[in-house]
Amino acid sequence: MKILAFGEVMLRYTVPEHMLLEQSDTVLMSTVGTGVNLLGSLSHLGYETGMITQVPDNSLGKKAVADLRKLGIDDSLVGYTNGYLGSFFVELGHGSRPQRVTYQDRLSSSFCITGPDEYDFNSALEGVDYVHICGIALSLTKETRSAALELAKVAHKKGVKVCFDFNYRMGLNENNSHQMMKELYQEMLEYVDIAFGSKRDLTDLLDYAEIKESDLYAKFSADYDIEYFAGSNRKSDEHKRYFQGFIAHNGQLYKSKLREVKVLDRIGSGDAFASGVITGLIENWKYEDTLRFAVANSVLTQESLNDTPLFDKEDIFDYLACDGKNELIR
Amino acid sequence: MKILAFGEVMLRYTVPEHMLLEQSDTVLMSTVGTGVNLLGSLSHLGYETGMITQVPDNSLGKKAVADLRKLGIDDSLVGYTNGYLGSFFVELGHGSRPQRVTYQDRLSSSFCITGPDEYDFNSALEGVDYVHICGIALSLTKETRSAALELAKVAHKKGVKVCFDFNYRMGLNENNSHQMMKELYQEMLEYVDIAFGSKRDLTDLLDYAEIKESDLYAKFSADYDIEYFAGSNRKSDEHKRYFQGFIAHNGQLYKSKLREVKVLDRIGSGDAFASGVITGLIENWKYEDTLRFAVANSVLTQESLNDTPLFDKEDIFDYLACDGKNELIR
Amino acid sequence: MKILAFGEVMLRYTVPEHMLLEQSDTVLMSTVGTGVNLLGSLSHLGYETGMITQVPDNSLGKKAVADLRKLGIDDSLVGYTNGYLGSFFVELGHGSRPQRVTYQDRLSSSFCITGPDEYDFNSALEGVDYVHICGIALSLTKETRSAALELAKVAHKKGVKVCFDFNYRMGLNENNSHQMMKELYQEMLEYVDIAFGSKRDLTDLLDYAEIKESDLYAKFSADYDIEYFAGSNRKSDEHKRYFQGFIAHNGQLYKSKLREVKVLDRIGSGDAFASGVITGLIENWKYEDTLRFAVANSVLTQESLNDTPLFDKEDIFDYLACDGKNELIR
Amino acid sequence: MKILAFGEVMLRYTVPEHMLLEQSDTVLMSTVGTGVNLLGSLSHLGYETGMITQVPDNSLGKKAVADLRKLGIDDSLVGYTNGYLGSFFVELGHGSRPQRVTYQDRLSSSFCITGPDEYDFNSALEGVDYVHICGIALSLTKETRSAALELAKVAHKKGVKVCFDFNYRMGLNENNSHQMMKELYQEMLEYVDIAFGSKRDLTDLLDYAEIKESDLYAKFSADYDIEYFAGSNRKSDEHKRYFQGFIAHNGQLYKSKLREVKVLDRIGSGDAFASGVITGLIENWKYEDTLRFAVANSVLTQESLNDTPLFDKEDIFDYLACDGKNELIR
Amino acid sequence: MKILAFGEVMLRYTVPEHMLLEQSDTVLMSTVGTGVNLLGSLSHLGYETGMITQVPDNSLGKKAVADLRKLGIDDSLVGYTNGYLGSFFVELGHGSRPQRVTYQDRLSSSFCITGPDEYDFNSALEGVDYVHICGIALSLTKETRSAALELAKVAHKKGVKVCFDFNYRMGLNENNSHQMMKELYQEMLEYVDIAFGSKRDLTDLLDYAEIKESDLYAKFSADYDIEYFAGSNRKSDEHKRYFQGFIAHNGQLYKSKLREVKVLDRIGSGDAFASGVITGLIENWKYEDTLRFAVANSVLTQESLNDTPLFDKEDIFDYLACDGKNELIR
Amino acid sequence: MKILAFGEVMLRYTVPEHMLLEQSDTVLMSTVGTGVNLLGSLSHLGYETGMITQVPDNSLGKKAVADLRKLGIDDSLVGYTNGYLGSFFVELGHGSRPQRVTYQDRLSSSFCITGPDEYDFNSALEGVDYVHICGIALSLTKETRSAALELAKVAHKKGVKVCFDFNYRMGLNENNSHQMMKELYQEMLEYVDIAFGSKRDLTDLLDYAEIKESDLYAKFSADYDIEYFAGSNRKSDEHKRYFQGFIAHNGQLYKSKLREVKVLDRIGSGDAFASGVITGLIENWKYEDTLRFAVANSVLTQESLNDTPLFDKEDIFDYLACDGKNELIR
User: Fold this and answer.
1) Which chain A residue has its CA at the smallest distance from C302's CA?
2) Distance, CA of A215 to CA of B164 (rounded, Å)
3) CB B60 within 8 A of CB B11
């Protein structure tokens, strides 16, 4: 079983000890990104993975690629080129104080300046079962848009399952018209087998009417011939946070229970859920089991520092077996 | 709008990773103090601020002053002299384990050995709207007592609004008689426009009778011609902490709702509340809005490391808009 | 009042910032072990303590012994020999994510390769009131088994009170038969005055029938002439943890109330409870008071980093006086 | 005496413990840049300074500006706008292993996207004695080029002394023609009073012939009506490094002695030299004394971590008094 | 070009800030070992590498393997089994104060308890050009001895070039007779093509007479049909250290010049030299060039923290081009 | 062999990574002082030691005493009282950049406010062979002066050897007249057997004429009946530092060779030398051997971080055996 992902490799700087940026001159670095998080998780869950991306040809790019390998992600499809690494800062929250994320420039990153001609998608996809494309590529640059669409097209043609995560972010689309973005997403969805997203993505981006959730997902799946539509959402009341996931398939909507989360670092919660869902699909688990597994992977990740889930199947099954109540493994 | 504060600049050593002093040979340093916290906050809230104080003329004093500037506090009224910097150690608590504070000597600090003659209060107060005086100055030394009273007198005469924080601490007054301290506070209050304190301060220090809270504050305000009397208090049940603030003005008592706080570091909670109140007064907000704002500033500060609030108005309005339930800003 | 302990000194590596081993190349080291934790606590509670053990004769062994002294434990009975230091890694948990412990080899440690002939128990026990033996010695090696039994025998003969902690761990006994271990424990119990353990230890290891708890403990105490049998247990519901202790004496069973614990690091909870119980026995406190004290010592320890309790009597009495609700001592 | 600087504020990430990027996930952050280093130094040397620049309007930009204030640099001319902060990584060298610098994107920085219309140079220069312009602005973007030239023009007109540092870097001019850059520098030099650069800058960039050094500098100064031309250079033999400075004025060439430097971090050596030279000019010192002072400031800075010199006049005079041989000040 | 190595993966703990173990409770972890260092270097030099070894099946073993991947070493031949990870502590030296290394137990490591039957050497060696065997395997356990010899035999038979590093250490052979060790090395050398060692190894372990160095190496190479015999040595005078390498081939002895080294951390100097030599052999460089390259790789590594060389060919060629005198690459 | 020391326990804050105070918000803490350094060293050299001093009765004082025990110093003569802990900051130097020390207040320390009546010197000195008194006590307060003199007197009377270190510091005596200090030292010297000091101490403090060094020391020793007068001095040329020691006894002057030192941290060099000399006296070594040993102890300490020497006899003999040229002990 081999899974590739296409997306940007990003440098994350985390301020330690729950401090604010203004309070600390030390930061912890990690190499993350939607694709990185997803593959890092799938690699820990036992599958062969590889990243299709571009990094700068300098000691920072090499560090980032070393980190990919450390996560268990094959680096043979990573290109070294001009440009930079996108990066962002994370100030962890505490109690009701919110976690804060500040982006540095990503449009001049090696990934963002590389168009489809620099990749050989056809040979990259040989022997591959799933390819994951992060929707952010559609928001970034002309180059990433064409590359993402080209990859989806080639994969679709070769019969490689295409996973696509909407990942639509307002902040990244201030200069892109609603119409343009909608059309790009629609074009992409023609090639997609498994989509990750939310109700908001369908109503706000694709202009679906606000109908009953199960009907909405069924209609969307039918419109674009999507096999699985899955996603997660978060609820909050004062000082408590909850997490829940769903899978829509074949007209049915499966929902997990709400699970309380003591969030340490919420970034990557969706990627952890997605890798859990893909695992369930690979293993042909029942949807209920897949949801429990995917939610557990996400909860464990949110109760850990950093984006990338590092849990293997045994970790998650042990966790589910005691319903998350065992505080010590020794 | 320009606000000055008179008080001691202190060095704080925080033991990292929630450890006890005995467990760690590394500490994090920060520059704090009632005035520093208040002005650091007001500077982040958009006002011009400046500190009237004294530090040692060595690399430690210079570091402390560099920290003041970093907080946005003007350092042109800081004197460099003999003496030392007062300091204290903080061991953070966890759950029901209490936070612990250990003081080193402050009576030999540059601030404590400097009397009114070393300051030029008259020119310092030119163009100033508010001056804040920390009541601890009344407990420390002969020099700080006279300097604080002299400053209050000059400010009062010049029509600069005088804010005064009772900040009465038993531990600092073991060698001072109740009568002496009461008289000093009474003398000070003659010049005060805005007082920060608690019910305890009125009954235990100023010997008011224990009457209904609103009547007590009204009587006290009338007695000393105090325009605003404000303060905060904390409540605890097992493993939960709450915070609440009040403003007494013109015979009325306004109280905020109790707000749960997931305390990371409780020091500075009162200073954060006070800077919120002063902001409301400057901006002429309704007292309810001022209290909500001041409590939010204090809650965010208690859910952060270190004493000094670093939040700007936008941070606090965003926080209030989602009632503190938004865990991530990206 | 002088208390000795016999057991292994272990090196603990804690991953900082709540990270997983895979996420960090920095670890915090500490010197721990059942005997170390117990004596470190008793030394902070005001008693003279000393450790009977062996460490390697190199800079690591010397560091460990320096740490013992730092904890207030006399090192004059520590031998320097061949072998190594046993060690383990701790990854702290968060919320429902479990704490994780990974052991390195301990069977080749200096302690594990040293038999009774290398110790002079007789003179070591001169003037000693209590000696504590950790049951793990019975699981480790031939040498530690004979040494532990020999020490218990000599102490019993000299009238030194023998405390024994079952500390039975499946993971350490995969190659030892149930029968062998049962007999070793039975032999040991002949010399024991005060035993620490759980219901499970009696039913699963010593093959007692599952009868009413108070009857079970009474029967066990009678069978082996045990003066006190004490222990603690933990309960969990989703995201909440509780701690409770008991003392069985003279046919009576005393139980503390369940106390909620915001666990920061649960290792050492039993050792903290045991040192509290021993303190109560030394001081002749009422059993209810002893339990409250011992539970408080354990809760404070679980709400701190690292195994070894560092609280003195004043810390614990202050804590009990405000029922753990005072967040700040200044 | 008031000195402004125009240039980019950059974020520097230093890998700790002399490690390579690939070896560490922790970095130390500092706020640097040619203008920042120069003003930080001048502020420690006792002068009033202020930075004219742009930073992003987010928590990273605010941190950078807090750092400017900490260095003693007035931030009232700093604009908050779109864009990002330029950044670079430093891996310190050791022995013959070279220090390594890796840049992230700076062309999309707030500074680089801001043209002259966003600044009010005329009022910024009121009451200013010196303004310093970093030549890198000529290499970066259309916006920074016009802003730098416009500022120089306005300053020249107002009689503010213009200091200009060539700072010409190949790496930043791969896409700029030699002719274009030469003309830009020539245009700038029309307004310059004090220029910092090297022989290479004159021969390679401005196409001067390779004549005797003193004649070359005299000719260059005459051509552009430069009052002072100053610079420094480094020499190396195996495992030893040396530093030397010169000032050319009025046809004369003054050179300091070669001074051995035990480099800890060589970045900022030129900025430290320049701030020393400017100090000498302000104070009207003899050129020999100015050179000794400027070289000492640079040597101390190279023997310290980070770019920005933090030494005051007393530090440097003490250092010169004992010829750098006093290892301890207590 | 594919190179495998067989040897132990070890955990290294480095005390930071040049401190002694007794002075610090923080250590930096890295994953090292002769094979790891050699392959990490060769992977950075551009070759495909893979490690044949065993690690414990727990989160520590997984971390170590993640580190291997980070270094660019393929982990598909790493087995997860019982046992532990060997480890050692490093206290860096300074000036004349020596670097100090303290070992924890390695005989119970996963590597040491695994014999040849647990490996499938035959298929592991498919498509492999070089295999490297660390001589320490001959000193450790019965299992590692048979595994190392079996691997050498299989490789020799398949025509894979066998590299062997004597790495003979007194400290590891206190319980092994000279005769036994000599015979084991002799048996191994029958299969070896390229040997790394020193004059001492030949005279003291293999009992060669002390003749002229070139004659000695020629005789040794002839006796065992060794194609290349290479090694390095260190010289010291007060406060200066030098490094030199040699290659003996076909009766000729090639020696590099003595190069001064400012040692930051000397461990791994021989492995860095060996990977440089292997590179020269792969690339068919002249022996003088190979020696310059190998010595440069070793000097750069000794002037870096940690054992494993992380330099690529460009780094080394740049270094050689300026003879190590360029302090900054930007 | 039992040695006591009387003196102040001080808290040292060291800025990490060779940074300046203004550059770092993290500091490393250690517990030091002349007596602490001397006894810490003697304890590592194999002797029984104990500190007579006073610390504050709070968690900082307890931490300091835990550190004493860690160093191997008996704490049973340490009193817990009012007052504080003296402290100082250390910024390490690099190359020609000097190390910098900044003191916080020590006159209000627990040690400084405690007079002779609070100590029971008579019973403290039972069974003691040597007592060491730091001359700084004569400069500090009335209380420390009388305590030091009283202790010397009692010891002298009981036949305990009195070691006295001049340790005269200008900075501590700005308010004390030369005459007063001279008389205090003269009074003390009546009781002294072994004095540590320098030529300067004799000429500048005691007003001896500047005669030939050997004659001067002989005269001084005769005047006060001093058995041994020993000391060390430092020489510097550009970028090199040297260390040398002497012992004057019975009219003879013994001098060690100058030894180059690569200083990492020079504080404590004299204490390390003194503990080496005392060791030689205890062991009755030849003076040449004693000097070599004492100089080696001091060089190793200066090439380490922190004041307190942590070397045992084996470390020093090994170091001397290879003349400090062995870079690695493994």
Assistant:
1) A327
2) 63
3) yes
- Tell me the C-alpha distance between C272 and C279, whole Å: 11
Which chain A residues are within 8 Å of C17, Cβ to Cβ?
16-17, 28, 305
Interface test with E, best of A26, A69, A74, A329 (most E CBs within 10 A): A69
Structure tokens at F47: 């002797």
**Exposure letters D31-63 (e unless 16+ CB within 10 A, then b):** bbbbbbbbbbbbbbbebbbbbbbbbbebbbbbb
Residues in chain E with CB shorter than 8 Å from the CB of D23 are 30, 305-306, 310
> For C104, which of E62, E85, E102 is closest by C-beta distance?
E85
What stretches of B33-77 adopt beta strand conformation (E)?
48-56
Q: Chain A partners of B323 at a C-beta cutoff of 8 Å? A: 238
Contacts of E70 in chain A (CB under 8 A): 66-67, 69-70
Under the banding of pLDDT at 50, 70 and 90, the label for residue C326 is low
Contacting subunits of E (3+ beta carbon pairs below 8 A): A, B, C, D, F
Kindly tell me the burial class for residue C146, based on how many C-beta atoms sit within 10 Å of its own C-beta (0-12, 13-18, 19 or more).
middle
Contact flag A96-B299 (C-beta cutoff 8 Å):
yes
Residues paired with residue E131 on neighbouring β-strands, in sequence order: E4, E162
Q: Would the CB atoms of F23 and D310 count as touching at under 8 Å?
A: yes
Q: pTM for this one?
A: 0.97
Whether the predicted pLDDT of C330 surpasses 50: no
Cα–Cα distance measured from residue D220 to residue B36, given in angstroms and rounded to the nearest whole number: 52
Domain D2-243 class in CATH:
alpha beta
- Please say whether the beta carbons of E155 and E28 come within 8 A: no
Distance separating alpha carbons of residues F310 and F271, to the nearest angstrom? 12
The per-residue pLDDT for range F240-253, each reduced to its tens digit, is 899 999 999 999 99
Residues contacting residue F199 through CB under 8 Å, at least 6 positions apart? F213, F216, F231
Q: Shortest Cα distance from B70 to chain D (angstroms)?
A: 4
Q: Look at residue E325 in the predicted model and tell me its pLDDT.
A: 72
For C131-154, how does the pLDDT look when each residue is reduced to its tens digit (9 = 90+)?
999 999 999 999 999 999 999 999
When scoring D8, D59, D103, D111 by the number of chain A Cβ atoms within 10 A, the one with the most, hence best to mutate, is D59
Mutation target for E interface from B23, B24, B25: give the one with most E CBs within 10 A.
B25
Return the residue of C nearest to B261 by Cα: C327
- Are the beta carbons of D242 and D259 closer than 8 angstroms? yes
Which tokens hold the place of F67?
Answer: 């550190």
Three-class DSSP category at E282? helix
Pairs of CB atoms within 8 A across B/E = 4
Which residue bears the tokens 């499809």?
A77
Query: What is the rounded CA–CA span in Å between residue A24 and residue E106?
Result: 40
Distance from CA of A90 to the nearest CA of F (A): 20
Backbone phi and psi for residue C132, each to the nearest 5 degrees, phi listed first: -115, 130
**Domain map of chain B by residue range?**
2-243, 244-329
Q: Is the pLDDT of residue C329 over 60?
A: no
Helix (H) or strand (E) segment spanning residue F36: helix F34-44
Exposure string for D86-121, b = 16+ CB within 10 A, e = fewer = bbbbbbbbbbbbbbbbbbbbbbbbbbbbbebeebeb
Residues from chain E that touch C108, judged by Cβ atoms under 8 A, are 105, 107-108
CB nearest to A303's CB, from C96, C101, C103: C96
Show residues of chain E in contact with F300, CB under 8 Å: 96-97
